[in-house]
Amino acid sequence: MSVNRDKFLEWIEACAVVLKENKDYLTELDSAIGDADHGANMDRGFKAVMSKMPEMIDKDIGTISKTVGMTLISTVGGAGGPLYGTFFLQVGMKSAGKMELSLEDWAMALRAALDGVVMRGKAELNDKTMVDAITPAVEALDHAVGNNTPLDQALEESASAAKEGMIATIPLVARKGRASYLGERSAGHQDPGATSSYLILQAAADTWAGS
């Protein structure tokens, strides 16, 4: 089982939909510990991505993901642009020339995306950032690859791990980004970046089910 180019494009579309649907929720989360713009920024970025869909539709997965990354960098405000841009650029680099991705391909791509985000944002696990959702998702995928887990199950396990990581940000004190300015007052709030990361990974599990 694998994810072909058309399914990859469906995932990008699903990301745009779920981020639009959750725009107010993400902004509400960000209003507690950030600049109250994460939802609007992510929605704007993926609307710009969708405007590029006609030029991506016949490209390989690597080119599609790189286009998404560059578009997010140029349209998403705050830290989200560079971080999510890096995420998709790294996926694109690992997927260069590919028209389909195996579970192992996706695991390697997501690992590269995580490494890129960590390098760009200088965040570590438990800093109360998107890294807290992506790290367990990557670890779950690596475990699934080692166990020859079916693609559907592996993706759902990865998304579930991301959700647990997202929820685990609630009691943490932020050590990076705008939220870190609040110190102890940042505890008790769910991180918006971890939340949008979970939504994106859950969209992959939902979209690629049955691939």
Architecture blueprint of SSEs:
Blueprint: E1 3-4, H1 5-21, H2 23-33, H3 38-51, H4 53-56, H5 61-75, H6 80-94, E2 100-101, H7 103-121, H8 131-146, H9 151-167, H10 192-208
Q: Top keywords for this entry?
A:
211 residues; mainly alpha; Serine Threonine Protein Phosphatase 5, Tetratricopeptide repeat; two-stranded antiparallel sheet; globular
3D architecture notes:
With 211 residues, the chain is mainly α. It has one domain (3-208): Serine Threonine Protein Phosphatase 5, Tetratricopeptide repeat. It has a two-stranded antiparallel ribbon with strand order 1-2. It has helices at 5-21, 23-33, 38-51, 53-56, 61-75, 80-94, 103-121, 131-146, 151-167, 192-208, and strands at residues 3-4, 100-101.
Gist of the model:
This protein has 211 residues and is an all-alpha fold.
Going by CATH, the homologous superfamily would be DhaL domain
Q: H/E order of the elements?
A: EHHHHHHEHHHH
Biggest β-sheet strands, sense, barrel:
2 strands, antiparallel
Helix content: 55-70%
Number of strands: 2
Could you name the CATH class? Answer: Mainly Alpha
End-to-end C-alpha gap? 6 Å
How does the helix and strand content classify structurally?
A: mainly alpha
| CATH second-level architecture | Alpha Horseshoe
- Basic shape: globular
> What's the number of structural domains?
1
Report the radius of gyration as a whole number of Å: 16 Å
Mean pLDDT: 93
Approximately what portion of the residues adopt beta-strand conformation? under 5%
CATH topology: Serine Threonine Protein Phosphatase 5, Tetratricopeptide repeat
Total number of helical segments?
10
Strand arrangement within the widest β-sheet reads 1-2
- Spans where pLDDT lies below 50 across 5 or more residues: none
